[in-house]
Each structure stands twice: as structure tokens, then as C-alpha cells.
Write a structure and sequence with these properties.
single chain, 263 residues, seven-stranded parallel β-sheet, alpha/beta, Rossmann fold, 14% strand, 2 domains, 49% helix, globular
């Protein structure tokens, strides 16, 4: 299937590893021009080299903190200067720490808001006017299955990712008439470094082993296993494509059937 991504310009945030890197590689494989960002220059350089080796396509990268609106604005401007346009934007970030409500400070809430919600707002403010000018665009947020069903131990993520879903659903209404779709993609338990860290935190609380946490997660999933980053990336690439022009305002779980709701 030709997704119509050849020549499109795609921004992928937090793409030095994990789901972001997998998405960037999938888009590059489909022929898109890819620009990635994350906080660590070394990690970005390694990710760009790995994507180049896997796809044969060059990758533009820039180190920045997505909680800094000025840095996001400068990055989007640099991408536009290099490629003359921005067609696709995938917002993403690391997750906030796993804490119980009684352990969570006001500063924890503010930091999580900046990381998860305001970073998406910053990208939206920069890319949507550019997409509107071109009358074509795909704005996608990488959220979490927590949007569908809260995840134990992820209080901050459960709360703020729901806010991101609300933002995206509203933007979908406002920008659809301009050829722009806005959707949320909600990963379930997918084997990344982030999940390894969460398993370590939960096992230390329970006194068990991380393998026990992974086994328990797998039992909860009808598919009987954790997801792979490339499985998640395949859906993102489709939603970013010409083929998905009538899919708008959705929150789609990629979770092996973990979330039990009807929608």
C-alpha cells in the first residue's frame, strides 16, 4: 500500500529512543523527510544514524527540551527553513515519574503539565498555522492507553494525558475544514526503556522482581504479550498518511486488547 508519504515533511518529538524513534524510522521508510528532537544530542545523533542505516534516508535532528516553548518554536522554524514546509507533527515526550497521590507535590503536577500538555500546545501553536496555510496536515499526539483506562502507578500520566486527548479532540474540530486531521494514538504496554523503568519502580514497591511485573501485565492483555514499538509505529504512519484523510478526532489504542471499553 502506498501511503502517499514520499516527500512529506514530518516532525517527531522525543525520538532518540523508544516509540518516538520507531515512528521516525517508519515514516522515513515510507519516504518522508524526517526531523527529530529530544534533549540529549548524543542520543539523537545515534538515533539519526540508526534510522539512516535502516532506511537509507537522511534525518535532521536538533536537541531541545520540549517544555521550552521558545526552543520548540526555533526547532519548527529550522525544519521549515530546511525543507520549506511542515506537513506532519507527532508530539511525544518522556513520562512523569510513577508516584502515589500522597507522594506527589505541587511542583510534580506543574512539571507534568509542562511535559505532557504544554509541550503538545507548543507544537500545535507552531505547526498548525503552517499546515493551515498549506491546507494539509497531520497532527498526532502519542499519549497512552491511560486515556482509555487508567494505569496503576501512573497518577500524573493518567491525569495529564487525558488533558492532551481533550486538546486534540478540540483541535480536530477547529482545523478539519483546512485539510488537517488531529488524532491521539494510545500505546499500551510496549517494550521500551520507559516500561523497563516502570517495572523496576513497581517491583521495588511490591518487593517482587521486574519479571513478575512483566508477567502480570502480559496476563492482563488478551494478546498475551507486550507490544513491539514497530507495531505501534505502523499505525502512526498510516494516520499520518494520505490514506487516513477521513480519520479525525479519534483516540486509538494500540494495546493488544488491554483497554476494555467499547470506544
Amino acid at each position: 500500500m502506498d501511503l502517499g508519504l514520499r516527500g512529506r515533511v514530518a516532525i517527531v518529538a522525543a525520538a532518540s529512543k523508544g516509540l518516538g524513534k520507531a515512528v521516525a524510522e517508519e515514516l522515513a521508510r515510507e519516504g518522508a523527510e524526517v526531523a527529530i528532537c529530544a534533549r540529549t544530542p548524543r542520543g539523537l545523533e545515534q538515533a539519526a544514524a540508526a534510522i539512516r542505516a535502516a532506511t537509507g534516508r537522511d534525518v535532521f535532528w536538533q536537541a531541545l527540551d520540549v517544555t521550552d516553548p521558545a526552543a520548540v518554536a526555533a526547532f519548527v522554524a529550522a525544519v521549515e527553513q530546511r525543507f520549506s514546509r511542515v506537513d506532519i507533527c507527532i508530539t511525544n515526550s518522556g513520562g512523569p515519574p510513577s508516584k502515589l497521590f500522597s507522594e506527589t507535590t505541587v511542583q510534580d503536577w506543574r512539571a507534568a503539565t509542562d511535559l505532557l500538555l504544554m509541550s503538545a500546545v507548543s507544537f500545535a501553536r507552531e505547526v498548525l498555522p503552517r499546515m493551515r496555510k498549506n491546507r494539509w496536515g497531520r497532527f498526532l499526539t502519542i499519549t497512552s492507553v491511560a486515556v482509555k483506562q487508567p494505569v496503576d502507578g501512573l497518577l500524573l500520566s493518567n491525569s495529564l494525558r487525558a488533558a492532551v486527548a481533550g486538546l486534540a479532540r478540540t483541535l480536530a474540530n477547529e482545523y478539519a475544514a483546512h485539510g488537517i486531521t488531529v488524532n491521539n494514538v494510545c500505546p499500551g504496554y510496549t517494550r521500551t526503556e520507559r516500561l523497563d523503568d516502570l517495572a523496576g519502580t513497581l517491583s521495588s514497591r511490591s518487593g517482587g522482581a521486574p519479571d513478575d511485573v512483566f508477567a502480570n501485565w502480559s496476563k492482563q492483555i488478551p494478546a498475551g504479550r507486550l507490544g513491539r514499538p514497530e507495531e505501534f509505529a505502523a499505525l502512526v504512519a498510516f494516520l499520518a498518511s494520505e490514506r487516513a484523510s477521513y480519520i479525525n478526532g479519534t483516540s486509538i489504542a494500540v494495546d493488544g486488547g488491554l483497554s476494555r471499553g467499547l470506544l
